[in-house]
Automatic annotation (TrEMBL):
PROSITE patterns attached to this UniProt entry: ABC_TM1 (PS50928)
Main location (coarse class): membrane
Protein name, per record: ABC transporter permease
Region Disordered, residue ranges: 1-24
PANTHER family cross-referenced by the UniProt entry: ABC TRANSPORTER PERMEASE PROTEIN MJ0413-RELATED, ALKANE SULFONATE ABC TRANSPORTER-RELATED, MEMBRANE SUBUNIT
TM segment ranges: 38-59, 106-124, 136-156, 162-181, 255-279
Signal peptide coordinates: none
Pfam families: BPD_transp_1
Species this protein is from: Streptomyces polychromogenes
Length: 290
Protein backbone atom coordinates (compact mmCIF):
# COMPACT_ATOMS: atom_id res chain seq x y z
CA UNK A 1 0.00 0.00 0.00
CA UNK A 2 2.83 2.37 0.85
CA UNK A 3 4.54 1.58 -2.45
CA UNK A 4 1.38 2.28 -4.44
CA UNK A 5 0.87 5.61 -2.68
CA UNK A 6 4.38 6.75 -3.47
CA UNK A 7 4.06 5.69 -7.10
CA UNK A 8 0.80 7.57 -7.50
CA UNK A 9 2.27 10.68 -5.93
CA UNK A 10 5.06 10.60 -8.46
CA UNK A 11 8.81 10.27 -7.89
CA UNK A 12 9.42 13.97 -8.54
CA UNK A 13 7.55 14.95 -5.42
CA UNK A 14 9.73 12.91 -3.11
CA UNK A 15 12.85 14.51 -1.58
CA UNK A 16 16.16 12.97 -2.70
CA UNK A 17 17.31 10.19 -0.39
CA UNK A 18 19.48 11.36 2.48
CA UNK A 19 18.73 15.09 1.93
CA UNK A 20 16.73 17.20 4.36
CA UNK A 21 14.59 19.81 2.49
CA UNK A 22 14.93 22.19 5.46
CA UNK A 23 18.74 22.02 5.45
CA UNK A 24 19.37 24.97 3.03
CA UNK A 25 16.97 27.16 4.97
CA UNK A 26 18.60 26.26 8.27
CA UNK A 27 22.02 26.95 6.76
CA UNK A 28 20.95 30.40 5.60
CA UNK A 29 19.51 31.12 9.05
CA UNK A 30 22.76 30.10 10.74
CA UNK A 31 24.75 32.25 8.34
CA UNK A 32 22.47 35.27 8.97
CA UNK A 33 22.82 34.80 12.73
CA UNK A 34 26.59 34.52 12.41
CA UNK A 35 26.89 37.75 10.41
CA UNK A 36 24.46 39.48 12.76
CA UNK A 37 26.57 38.45 15.75
CA UNK A 38 29.69 39.77 14.02
CA UNK A 39 28.03 43.15 13.39
CA UNK A 40 26.85 43.32 16.99
CA UNK A 41 30.35 42.54 18.24
CA UNK A 42 31.87 45.22 16.00
CA UNK A 43 29.33 47.77 17.29
CA UNK A 44 30.09 46.83 20.90
CA UNK A 45 33.84 47.23 20.31
CA UNK A 46 33.27 50.63 18.67
CA UNK A 47 31.13 51.87 21.58
CA UNK A 48 33.66 50.57 24.13
CA UNK A 49 36.51 52.33 22.32
CA UNK A 50 34.45 55.53 22.14
CA UNK A 51 33.68 55.41 25.85
CA UNK A 52 37.34 54.67 26.66
CA UNK A 53 38.48 57.74 24.71
CA UNK A 54 35.94 59.92 26.53
CA UNK A 55 36.87 58.50 29.95
CA UNK A 56 40.56 59.07 29.26
CA UNK A 57 39.86 62.76 28.58
CA UNK A 58 41.70 62.78 25.26
CA UNK A 59 39.42 65.59 24.05
CA UNK A 60 37.08 67.92 25.95
CA UNK A 61 33.49 66.70 26.40
CA UNK A 62 32.21 69.61 24.33
CA UNK A 63 34.07 68.15 21.34
CA UNK A 64 33.61 64.42 21.96
CA UNK A 65 30.61 63.60 24.18
CA UNK A 66 30.09 60.13 25.61
CA UNK A 67 27.73 57.57 24.02
CA UNK A 68 25.41 58.09 26.98
CA UNK A 69 25.18 61.83 26.32
CA UNK A 70 24.44 61.21 22.64
CA UNK A 71 21.74 58.71 23.60
CA UNK A 72 20.22 61.22 26.06
CA UNK A 73 20.04 63.88 23.34
CA UNK A 74 18.56 61.32 20.97
CA UNK A 75 15.81 60.56 23.50
CA UNK A 76 15.19 64.24 24.26
CA UNK A 77 14.90 65.07 20.55
CA UNK A 78 12.48 62.17 20.07
CA UNK A 79 10.09 62.89 22.96
CA UNK A 80 8.12 65.64 24.66
CA UNK A 81 9.92 66.68 27.87
CA UNK A 82 9.13 69.51 30.31
CA UNK A 83 6.59 70.87 27.87
CA UNK A 84 9.19 71.00 25.07
CA UNK A 85 8.47 69.02 21.92
CA UNK A 86 11.67 67.46 20.62
CA UNK A 87 13.98 70.09 19.12
CA UNK A 88 12.69 73.33 17.64
CA UNK A 89 9.11 72.25 18.26
CA UNK A 90 9.45 69.06 16.19
CA UNK A 91 10.34 65.49 17.11
CA UNK A 92 13.41 63.86 15.60
CA UNK A 93 11.24 61.56 13.50
CA UNK A 94 9.41 64.61 12.15
CA UNK A 95 12.69 66.33 11.23
CA UNK A 96 13.77 63.14 9.50
CA UNK A 97 10.42 62.75 7.73
CA UNK A 98 10.57 66.27 6.30
CA UNK A 99 14.09 65.66 4.99
CA UNK A 100 13.07 62.32 3.49
CA UNK A 101 10.15 64.03 1.79
CA UNK A 102 12.49 66.58 0.26
CA UNK A 103 14.85 63.81 -0.86
CA UNK A 104 11.97 61.84 -2.39
CA UNK A 105 10.68 64.90 -4.27
CA UNK A 106 14.11 65.93 -5.53
CA UNK A 107 14.99 62.36 -6.55
CA UNK A 108 11.65 61.89 -8.34
CA UNK A 109 12.17 65.02 -10.42
CA UNK A 110 15.74 63.89 -11.13
CA UNK A 111 14.48 60.51 -12.38
CA UNK A 112 11.84 62.13 -14.59
CA UNK A 113 14.48 64.35 -16.19
CA UNK A 114 17.57 62.17 -15.92
CA UNK A 115 16.32 58.96 -17.56
CA UNK A 116 15.07 60.63 -20.78
CA UNK A 117 18.22 62.76 -20.85
CA UNK A 118 20.39 59.65 -20.50
CA UNK A 119 18.44 57.88 -23.24
CA UNK A 120 19.04 60.80 -25.59
CA UNK A 121 22.74 60.96 -24.74
CA UNK A 122 23.11 57.22 -25.20
CA UNK A 123 21.27 56.94 -28.53
CA UNK A 124 21.66 60.26 -30.36
CA UNK A 125 25.30 61.03 -31.04
CA UNK A 126 24.97 64.80 -31.82
CA UNK A 127 23.03 65.35 -28.58
CA UNK A 128 25.64 63.38 -26.67
CA UNK A 129 28.37 65.69 -27.94
CA UNK A 130 26.44 68.70 -26.63
CA UNK A 131 24.81 67.38 -23.44
CA UNK A 132 27.34 64.94 -21.99
CA UNK A 133 29.88 67.65 -21.00
CA UNK A 134 27.08 69.56 -19.25
CA UNK A 135 26.12 66.48 -17.23
CA UNK A 136 29.75 65.90 -16.29
CA UNK A 137 30.08 69.56 -15.30
CA UNK A 138 27.09 69.31 -12.95
CA UNK A 139 28.31 66.00 -11.54
CA UNK A 140 31.62 67.53 -10.45
CA UNK A 141 30.06 70.52 -8.67
CA UNK A 142 29.66 70.29 -4.87
CA UNK A 143 26.16 71.28 -3.71
CA UNK A 144 27.37 74.27 -1.69
CA UNK A 145 28.89 75.74 -4.87
CA UNK A 146 25.47 76.57 -6.33
CA UNK A 147 23.30 76.80 -3.19
CA UNK A 148 23.83 80.56 -2.87
CA UNK A 149 22.82 81.07 -6.50
CA UNK A 150 19.67 79.01 -5.96
CA UNK A 151 18.78 81.09 -2.90
CA UNK A 152 19.18 84.29 -4.96
CA UNK A 153 16.96 82.88 -7.69
CA UNK A 154 14.26 81.13 -5.61
CA UNK A 155 14.38 82.66 -2.12
CA UNK A 156 14.68 80.75 1.17
CA UNK A 157 11.57 78.55 1.05
CA UNK A 158 11.33 75.01 -0.30
CA UNK A 159 12.25 75.72 -3.93
CA UNK A 160 16.05 76.11 -3.52
CA UNK A 161 16.24 72.93 -1.40
CA UNK A 162 14.37 70.85 -3.97
CA UNK A 163 16.36 72.32 -6.85
CA UNK A 164 19.63 71.58 -5.10
CA UNK A 165 18.64 67.93 -4.59
CA UNK A 166 17.47 67.67 -8.21
CA UNK A 167 20.77 69.04 -9.52
CA UNK A 168 22.72 66.72 -7.20
CA UNK A 169 20.76 63.58 -8.15
CA UNK A 170 20.24 64.12 -11.89
CA UNK A 171 23.82 63.62 -13.22
CA UNK A 172 24.32 60.08 -11.78
CA UNK A 173 20.99 58.97 -13.27
CA UNK A 174 21.70 60.47 -16.68
CA UNK A 175 25.25 59.08 -16.77
CA UNK A 176 24.15 55.58 -15.71
CA UNK A 177 21.31 55.55 -18.25
CA UNK A 178 23.54 56.68 -21.11
CA UNK A 179 26.22 54.12 -20.27
CA UNK A 180 23.63 51.33 -19.92
CA UNK A 181 21.97 52.11 -23.25
CA UNK A 182 25.33 52.12 -25.03
CA UNK A 183 26.21 48.66 -23.70
CA UNK A 184 23.02 46.91 -24.87
CA UNK A 185 24.13 43.78 -26.79
CA UNK A 186 24.22 44.42 -30.52
CA UNK A 187 22.64 41.04 -31.23
CA UNK A 188 19.44 42.10 -29.48
CA UNK A 189 19.27 45.34 -31.43
CA UNK A 190 19.88 43.64 -34.77
CA UNK A 191 17.34 40.92 -34.02
CA UNK A 192 14.70 43.53 -33.17
CA UNK A 193 15.45 45.45 -36.36
CA UNK A 194 15.17 42.24 -38.38
CA UNK A 195 11.71 41.73 -36.90
CA UNK A 196 10.67 45.20 -38.07
CA UNK A 197 11.12 47.33 -34.94
CA UNK A 198 11.37 51.05 -35.57
CA UNK A 199 13.51 53.50 -33.57
CA UNK A 200 10.86 54.15 -30.91
CA UNK A 201 9.88 50.49 -30.55
CA UNK A 202 13.55 49.54 -30.44
CA UNK A 203 14.17 52.02 -27.64
CA UNK A 204 11.16 51.04 -25.52
CA UNK A 205 11.11 47.27 -26.08
CA UNK A 206 14.82 46.42 -26.33
CA UNK A 207 17.20 49.13 -25.18
CA UNK A 208 15.28 50.30 -22.12
CA UNK A 209 14.50 46.85 -20.60
CA UNK A 210 18.08 45.73 -21.21
CA UNK A 211 19.48 48.87 -19.60
CA UNK A 212 16.99 48.95 -16.71
CA UNK A 213 19.21 47.14 -14.15
CA UNK A 214 21.99 49.69 -14.56
CA UNK A 215 19.47 52.54 -14.59
CA UNK A 216 18.09 51.38 -11.23
CA UNK A 217 21.62 51.19 -9.87
CA UNK A 218 22.16 54.77 -11.01
CA UNK A 219 18.94 55.81 -9.29
CA UNK A 220 20.08 54.15 -6.06
CA UNK A 221 23.39 56.02 -6.27
CA UNK A 222 21.55 59.27 -7.02
CA UNK A 223 19.32 58.87 -3.95
CA UNK A 224 22.48 58.42 -1.88
CA UNK A 225 23.95 61.60 -3.39
CA UNK A 226 20.73 63.47 -2.59
CA UNK A 227 20.88 62.13 0.96
CA UNK A 228 24.42 63.38 1.43
CA UNK A 229 23.35 66.77 0.05
CA UNK A 230 20.37 67.25 2.35
CA UNK A 231 22.41 68.99 5.06
CA UNK A 232 23.63 71.51 2.50
CA UNK A 233 20.11 71.89 1.13
CA UNK A 234 18.75 72.66 4.60
CA UNK A 235 21.48 75.12 5.53
CA UNK A 236 19.08 77.99 4.82
CA UNK A 237 15.74 77.89 6.65
CA UNK A 238 15.93 74.12 7.02
CA UNK A 239 13.95 73.59 10.25
CA UNK A 240 12.01 71.34 10.34
CA UNK A 241 14.49 69.00 8.68
CA UNK A 242 17.26 66.74 9.96
CA UNK A 243 19.94 68.77 8.19
CA UNK A 244 18.53 72.00 9.55
CA UNK A 245 18.43 70.52 13.05
CA UNK A 246 22.07 69.48 12.79
CA UNK A 247 23.12 72.92 11.54
CA UNK A 248 21.14 74.66 14.27
CA UNK A 249 22.65 72.45 16.98
CA UNK A 250 26.13 73.12 15.58
CA UNK A 251 25.66 76.86 16.02
CA UNK A 252 25.14 76.34 19.77
CA UNK A 253 27.93 73.73 20.19
CA UNK A 254 25.44 70.97 20.98
CA UNK A 255 27.83 68.27 19.82
CA UNK A 256 25.86 65.37 21.29
CA UNK A 257 22.76 66.42 19.36
CA UNK A 258 24.80 66.87 16.19
CA UNK A 259 26.10 63.31 16.53
CA UNK A 260 22.60 62.01 17.28
CA UNK A 261 21.34 63.68 14.10
CA UNK A 262 24.21 62.24 12.06
CA UNK A 263 23.45 58.76 13.39
CA UNK A 264 19.77 59.20 12.52
CA UNK A 265 20.72 60.18 8.98
CA UNK A 266 23.09 57.23 8.62
CA UNK A 267 20.70 54.63 10.01
CA UNK A 268 17.79 55.85 7.92
CA UNK A 269 20.10 55.86 4.91
CA UNK A 270 20.92 52.19 5.49
CA UNK A 271 17.21 51.35 5.67
CA UNK A 272 16.45 53.37 2.54
CA UNK A 273 19.28 51.74 0.59
CA UNK A 274 18.06 48.29 1.65
CA UNK A 275 14.55 49.14 0.40
CA UNK A 276 15.99 50.34 -2.91
CA UNK A 277 17.97 47.10 -3.25
CA UNK A 278 14.79 45.09 -2.69
CA UNK A 279 12.97 47.19 -5.28
CA UNK A 280 15.88 46.68 -7.68
CA UNK A 281 15.78 42.89 -7.26
CA UNK A 282 11.99 42.84 -7.60
CA UNK A 283 11.79 45.21 -10.55
CA UNK A 284 14.50 43.54 -12.67
CA UNK A 285 14.43 39.80 -11.89
CA UNK A 286 16.36 39.16 -15.11
CA UNK A 287 19.43 41.01 -13.79
CA UNK A 288 22.59 38.93 -14.25
CA UNK A 289 20.89 36.45 -16.55
CA UNK A 290 21.91 35.86 -20.12
Amino acid sequence: MTTLTRTAAGPDRLPPPGRDPAAPRAGRLREALRWGALRTLALAVLLAAWQAVVSAGVWPRVLVPSPGEVWRQFVLASTVHDGVRGYGGHLLIEHLGVSLGRIATGSAYAVLAGVPLGLLIGTVRPLAVVLEPAVTFLRTLPPLAYLSLLVIWFGIDEAPKIWLLVIAALPPIAAATAAAVRTVPGQLVEAARALGSGPVSLLLSVRLPSALPEILTGIRIAVGVAYTSVVAAETVNGVPGIGGMIRDAQRYNQTALVIAGILAVGLSGIVLDALLRIAERTGVPWRGRT
